[in-house]
Write a structure and sequence with these properties.
Elements: H1 4-23, H2 25-38, E1 44-50, E2 56-62, H3 69-84
Antiparallel strand pairs: 1-2
Length: about 90
């Protein structure tokens, strides 16, 4: 049987871990659950990317404000440059 004093550090670590798990991923999980209800699209959509040594892989892309933002990116960058008059190559 263990004494109450030896359980105190374990209890503190358990509570700190539980608090961390509630505060950090909680908002992300909430957004993934709420976005499909409030909008027409999905919260995450699959997107193909090129990785290490040119090998393709799939990843989950988070919901954007515009449904076809990945297709409209080029036009939006040029529109932004036209409005501000600055900016060469944008890092997207």
């Amino acid at each position: 049987m263990t004494s109450g004093t030896s359980q105190a550090p374990k209890r503190v670590v358990d509570l700190a871990g539980a608090l961390f798990l509630l505060l950090v991923p909680g908002p992300v999980i909430s957004a993934v659950l709420v976005i499909p209800v409030l909008s027409a699209g999905r919260a995450l959509s699959p997107q193909r990317r090129v990785g290490y040594r040119g090998r393709p892989f799939w990843m989950g892309k988070s919901h954007t404000m515009v449904g076809d933002a990945d297709r409209r990116q080029h036009d939006l960058v040029h529109e932004k440059q036209g409005l501000t008059g600055i900016g060469g190559r944008e890092a997207y």
